[in-house]
Amino acid sequence: MKILSPRVLRTLERFNAAHPWDHNAHYHRWILRRLPRRFDRALDAGSGSGDLARLLAGRAATVQAVDTDPVITDQARKLTPSGLPVTYTVADAMAELPAGPYDVITCVATIHHLPFTQALTRFRRHLAPGGTLVIVGLFRAQTPVDHLLGGVAIPANIAVGWLKNTGRFSKRPVSMTAPTRSAEMTFGEIVREVRCVLPGARLRRRLFWRYTLVWNRP
Questions:
Q1: Whether residue 148 sits in one domain with residue 97
Q2: If we measure between CA atoms, which residue out of 55, 58, 86 comes closest to residue 73?
Q3: Which CATH number covers residue 67?
Q4: 147 located within any domain
Q5: Cα–Cα distance, 131 to 175 (Å, whole number)
Q6: Which residue stretches of the chain are H helix?
Q7: Which end of the chain has fewer CB atoms at under 10 Å, N or C?
Q8: What is the C-alpha to C-alpha distance for residues 110 and 47, in angstroms, rounded to an integer?
């Protein structure tokens, strides 16, 4: 099922190129509302330009920020004020995560680049008892509900892009310079895998072609 013609898609792509904004950063404040006011150690997997890592540093004693891209990691270091307890590491989240456990693990728009079930298992092992895992991910639209939500996101995307690129709201997002890849898993497939690895996790489809996952380790 498709709700957009190729011509409309090309028009939207041109608009987004001219009015870019970070769909992932849109969820950063939402993520913070799912976390305790203070915690000891945090891990941000796929940290990009460090926007979320710096927000976590306002609550955490230490933050480990991991990304595979050395260029954007260098940008993140330059954007981070001295004194913030953030350590940036260029590493593969599946092979070289800094040793845990962590009270908080976040992963935004990264897990679709990784072997999904193995990544969930790895995050679970690095999460401390009572800790919180928050994922914002991408999924491949398949059902009528998916396409309807995608359709609703289109005018919202245009409105937000216009506002963020006009006047005092104008700010080109650094993290959008990182390479991206389309999601391959559907939301239903994601839910089935998550139920096996993270029983009790809460998942929801969201605007701007994203889903959220929150899991508290017993």
A1: no
A2: 86
A3: 3.40.50.150
A4: yes
A5: 27
A6: 6-18, 28-33, 51-56, 70-79, 116-126, 144-164, 187-197
A7: C
A8: 9
CA distance from start to end of the chain: 40
pLDDT tens for 117-147 read 999 999 999 999 999 999 999 988 766 665 5
Distance CA 158, CA 137 (A): 21
Q: Residue 188 — φ and ψ, nearest 5°?
A: -60, -40
Same domain, 61 and 126: yes
Quickly tell me which residue has 């904004």 as its tokens: 21
DSSP state at residue 98 = P
Q: Which two tokens stand for residue 174?
A: 């650094």
Is the bond leading into 101 cis (omega within 30 degrees of zero)? yes
Eight-class DSSP state of 109: S
Pairing relationship of beta strands 127-137 and 86-90 according to DSSP bridges = unpaired
- pTM of whole model > 0.85? no
Task: State whether 166 and 60 are in the same domain.
Answer: no
Side-chain half-sphere CA neighbours of 31 within 13 A: 28
| Tokens describing residue 30 | 């939402």
What residues make up the domain containing 12?
6-20+142-170
Number of domains the chain is built from: 2
At 75, list the tokens: 């940008």
